Amino acid sequence: MLEDKNPQRTSLEKLGEFGLIDHLTKNFEIKHKSTLKGIGDDAAVFDHKQQTVLTTDFLIEGVHFDLSYMPLKHLGYKAVMVNLSDVYAMNAKATQITVSLAVSNRFPLEALEELYAGIALASKVYNVDLIGGDTTTSTSGMLISITAVGEAKKEEITYRSGAKPNDLLVVSGDLGAAYMGLQVLEREKEVFKVNPNNQPDLSPYSYIVERQLKPEARKDIAELLKQLDVLPTAMIDISDGLSSEILHLCKNSKVGCNLFEEKIPLDPTVITTCEEFNIDSTMVALSGGEDYELLFTIAQNDFDKIKGNPNLTVIGHMTEPSEGAHLVTRANTKIELTAQGWNSFKSND
Amino acid sequence: MLEDKNPQRTSLEKLGEFGLIDHLTKNFEIKHKSTLKGIGDDAAVFDHKQQTVLTTDFLIEGVHFDLSYMPLKHLGYKAVMVNLSDVYAMNAKATQITVSLAVSNRFPLEALEELYAGIALASKVYNVDLIGGDTTTSTSGMLISITAVGEAKKEEITYRSGAKPNDLLVVSGDLGAAYMGLQVLEREKEVFKVNPNNQPDLSPYSYIVERQLKPEARKDIAELLKQLDVLPTAMIDISDGLSSEILHLCKNSKVGCNLFEEKIPLDPTVITTCEEFNIDSTMVALSGGEDYELLFTIAQNDFDKIKGNPNLTVIGHMTEPSEGAHLVTRANTKIELTAQGWNSFKSND
Asked: Where on this chain does substrate bind (chains A, B) (predicted)?
């Protein structure tokens, strides 16, 4: 689907490992005072005045992404987002990242420059410093491992474990779009295989395709909640699907939950695309994954503070643990929530 | 060379990603007061009272290790060592690690249990907390990405950049053993391919084979230097070979160096094995890599404090940058040092 419009191909071997790191990271600036040493020593050094949160995620070609429709610049951007999302889910400010990359020799330098352009853009927009990483060869494909750190005051960090019965369950943005974007891209890939001259018209799907290819982590939500003077009792990011994340909150907080189907926020494009693909949109929101929205609980007293905010939707409430975790359908029947989220070890994925 | 003596094979698919993490990490204890949250939330949380150092390294099957002679428990141990070595090279105390693992479905659960047994042993012996990671499938082979963090007082952190002309160049332990251990293992692998019934006698090579398969990071050196009241002016760990690391110190500190061939510490097994393989032992020390010893510079005034210590050898001294970096051979000729260290992107590796 994506043509190689750049005829220049510089082999990685020419540069060697150190030359490659220097070349790829030469335009990254250090922005945070807390970053004392970035790339170029045995380890990076930073000095956080508050508590540090740290998270790490792998992205693997053929498992987490498909380069036949994922532009490398978007991939670099998304790889950073996936990690920052976890930092924001702790209600922390993201400050530093490391990027480790393993690539087979089939990738020319120009491809890695594209990838790092995406990483650079993400670092700039989200105000994080690239402070280290590792660059090596792989026996097949591309693998990215990112570690992100952030900083937060002790009393502001939100764990998965703080939800209480009667707390409201709130979600940012809308759900299911990234998954449906993936369905559209997969379909176009099949069409392309049959007829490589076919130019797909993705414009009706631009919102959901962008949610898949270039998601944004919700840096704004932690800032918004601070402005609204709301401290979530528990928080998690939605990477595996709403259902799986709710069950994490329930398990860690030892509470139950009632989730209301009619409240789940869906973009109109998700609804129409679900109809086109003949998929149930609630199922997509529950199990689709890769939304990178934030799911959190707040005390009922805080409801007035968030009421009517277009970024936030109350989708349910927590209950006594004995009540379990349920979806309350539009027909007002209760269905037990089960984790249908993504299991990368399933051989039929 | 290694038989599968364990007939039990539990597929990873059965457990799923979360079940797998829970299972593999259930016996890890949190030992540090600074670790506030380990595995089980969107991010780990820690609180360092001093500055934080952070380093990350990839280990990739077929590039960095060969499972035909690397037992999985040793691999887990070594993967931790590789990272802790970078923390100690900053003169910091290692405190926390994350371990991310990508494995193909060909590995049964029991293999990963072995790997984690090695990680657990390393964590215990080196007193670090496992606080997070990611576990996913790979399209081929096994990949390990570890991030290690440590803590140090601002004034104690040793960068690569602090060496001055006339500082002494000091190395811990001895060099070249890990590389020669690898040569022996590779030779035995070839013998095994021809005759699988041949039982190799590795006992004459036990020191060098152990240095390859189960290296130890030099936690003790930072402690020793503190006892001796010596603060290195610059420090680096030897992962790519002495020559490459000296050039890093020279470049970062803007100094030159004279390294004396006759001073390079070699174990007798390295010397005899080099003779057997008809390889020059100095070349092995200069370019072999994977020694995980510490290379550092000290002020001449500090010489009396380290003199005669069996763990430390003065191998040269730093010079004005205009003099360049040279090896002074036993025949008293000067040869310019060049980085012959490992380039993983070379296609003929």
From this structure: 64, 290, 342
